[in-house]
Specification:
Blueprint: H1 2-28, E1 38-39, E2 42-43, H2 50-53, H3 55-70, H4 73-80, H5 83-97, H6 101-109, H7 113-134, H8 137-154, H9 164-202, H10 206-212, H11 217-241, H12 245-255, H13 258-293
Antiparallel strand pairs: 1-2
Helix pairs in contact: 1-13, 3-12, 5-11, 7-9, 8-9
Length: 294
């Protein structure tokens, strides 16, 4: 009687053990052996494992599956234009609007405040010199000054006796002297004005400029959101033409060490692969029971 019980139990038990270890070996053979094994000059079947052997094909298949079905241009556009992303982008831009222009320039250019001050001083000197160099007193006198002097002198009775040649001579002499003064002293006069204007500009923020223009904050936010939406919509095709998602994923997988690839797959599929192993044991037990019945 005991032998009969053992016989009934042993069939399902042995079937379960065989099913379990058969599927466990099959799962392990997905990753092992890592390299092909040769015996007497011949490569043994199933070496290397399925994934090491088909790594290139797997990389290509995953890359195209992602780009063709899982992460299409439409999906990326929808993500970029989602309400959450649009709000995040708008908030980020609005935060930058509240920053002083000088600070924003420092951030964008990667320079510190001392370097910025030095460059601003150099800019002030250059602008002041440029302004002074652009002042042509002789040209101004020729176009406006001589007629002005002539009209003023001729406006008094005795002035009508002064000949035009004399007026022209005096005006030209004055303009020449003024040109020398402008060249020598002009920068020292212009530079404080330029410095004041530059300080006024970089101490302000874009937000200050917007308020001065009379624009409402919500109107600006709406304009930024609409501009971002248009930018994404108009440029998504051009941008995606330069981004080959399939190639990026394929290159990434191909560059992975096989151990890293195994860890990645096991992270995603560990429960499913364990289920397959357990299912092998269950099927073995069922076959053992059916064998006892028939």
């Amino acid at each position: 009687m005991n032998m009969e019980i053992i016989g009934y139990i042993s069939g399902p038990l042995i079937g379960g053990i065989i099913g379990y270890f058969t599927n466990l070996i099959a799962v392990k053979m997905l990753f092992y052996p890592r390299k092909e094994i040769k015996l007497l000059g011949h490569v043994l079947p199933f070496t290397p494992g399925a994934i090491p052997k088909g790594k290139t094909r797997l990389a290509s298949a995953v890359g195209h599956a992602v780009s063709d079905s899982l992460l299409t241009k439409g999906d990326i556009e929808a993500m970029l234009l989602s309400e959450e992303v649009e709000e995040h982008v708008t908030d980020a831009i609005m935060r930058h609007f509240s920053v002083r222009i000088s600070n924003e320039i420092c951030v964008l250019t990667g320079i510190n405040e001392d370097e910025y001050s030095d460059k601003k001083a150099s800019l002030s000197n250059a602008l002041s010199q440029e302004i002074v160099d652009s002042i042509d007193v002789n040209a101004i006198m020729s176009e406006f000054g001589i007629n002005y002097f002539r009209d003023k002198i001729h406006s008094i009775p005795i002035g009508k006796l002064v000949p035009d040649d004399f007026i022209n001579s005096v005006a030209n002499t004055i303009s020449g002297d003024l040109q020398v003064i402008v060249k020598d002293k002009g920068v020292s006069f212009v530079k404080p004005i330029v410095d004041e204007k530059l300080d006024s500009i970089d101490s302000r923020s874009v937000e200050d400029i917007i308020k001065e223009s009379g624009k409402e904050t919500e109107t600006v936010r709406k304009s930024i959101t609409e501009g971002y939406h248009k930018l994404v919509h108009d440029n998504i095709d051009r941008s995606m033409a330069h981004i080959d998602i399939a190639s990026v994923i394929e290159d990434k997988i191909n560059s992975m060490d096989i151990n890293e690839l195994e860890r990645l797959i096991m992270t995603v599929m560990k429960n499913e692969l364990n289920t397959i192993v357990s299912l092998g044991a269950l099927i073995g037990i069922i076959i053992g029971l059916l064998n006892n019945l028939f």
